[in-house]
Amino acid sequence: MNERKTSVFSNGLLWFGAGISIAEILTGMLLAPLGFAKAFAAIILGHLIGGVVMYLAGLIGGRTGGSAMETVRISFGTQGAKLFAGLNVIQLVGWTAVMVASAALAANTIAAIGVSWWSLIIGAFIAVWIVMGLKNLSKINVVVMAALFILTIVLSLVVFKGGAPQVPAGDLTFGGAVELAVAMPLSWLPIISDYTRTAEKPGLATAASCSAYFIASSWMFLIGMGAALFTGQDDIAAIMVQAGLGVAGILVVLLSTVTTTFLDAFSAGVSCQSLVPKVSDKILALIATVLGVLLAIFAAPDQFQDFLYLIGSVFAPMTAILLSDFFILKQDHTADSVNWLNLVLWVLGVALYRFLLNVDTPVGITVPVVVILMAVSALVHKVLNKA
């Protein structure tokens, strides 16, 4: 990609848009059984934890100038990184489908023209964003983000307009709520370097990106949690309809989905380029968009969402090893074809992650996995290097 360089401000806008999405609102609704105070604390703590890891991952791309999957070569070698590139393409196409399908369903609640038609419309807008490219988007994003900011304030006023909160029944623990909040920023780990690599000022741009995402995503969680507590509903589109937010509701759904899902589709193209380097990342991103829209129309999202979470769980251990190599050990295995030691450590990390799924800690399970694996990786490499 030759679109260099992006400003700190444009990076911040890009990730503010990523944080404003229906997915964040729906996830925030799940935290309502904790009550307002505990849910609010879990949202902030989870986003702080996830945001720190997200910042470190993005900083690697900013400093090296490599895409997310190119930076993975530092730990796993040139051929080893292709495994993660392939898994990343699969999950990003899948998440494109999930986001498009969820938004189309919400939009159709507000204006019933058919879910399939809404899927096609949303897909077309995502394609326009991809064709425009990151540099050109920095101008239009100012207008789009201003509109989203105003619309989100309106939506917030609708949700928090008053009334006594009604805490729904549920068995969600505080640690489980933190894990849900952590999961959102961590879901961007295999993506963020695709955008920080083009920054004029990598450190500041990465900080701006993560800060903007922290604010927007936390805000969306609060809207979702507030909607469940103060309206008693679990359908944000229905709340918009009842509040008379017809056109405004459509704009919230459409713009928030496009600005978030664009990143999924574009990064699918960037990751796929690691596998087929002769094809333009934009062309590959457009193909990913088409596949995502087709999946959204012809497959029920709940049929493959659990599979996507399973794939997504591989990236926290992957990032832990990468952070250890880059920041602690300061070693680079790019010259290797496959670094088998790190691949074995990654498999153990995935196993640890799956094992801890039923364990409740105050900070969720992702953070313990990342910290433990970073420490083990650093220790093992230091011991073997001395041997």
Task: Summarize the structure in short.
It comes from Megasphaera elsdenii DSM 20460. This protein is mainly α and 387 residues long. It has 16 helices and no strands.
How far apart are the termini?
A: 42 Å
Percent of sequence in beta strands: under 5%
CATH hierarchy, class: Mainly Alpha
Kindly give the count of domains.
Answer: 1
**Averaged pLDDT, please?**
89
Q: Please identify which CATH superfamily we are dealing with.
A: Hydantoin permease
Helix coverage percent: over 70%
Structural class: mainly alpha
Q: Low-confidence stretches at least 5 residues in length (pLDDT < 50)? A: none
What is the architecture at the second tier of CATH?
Answer: Orthogonal Bundle
Q: How many separate helices?
A: 16
Which sequence of SSEs, written as H and E, runs from N to C? HHHHHHHHHHHHHHHH
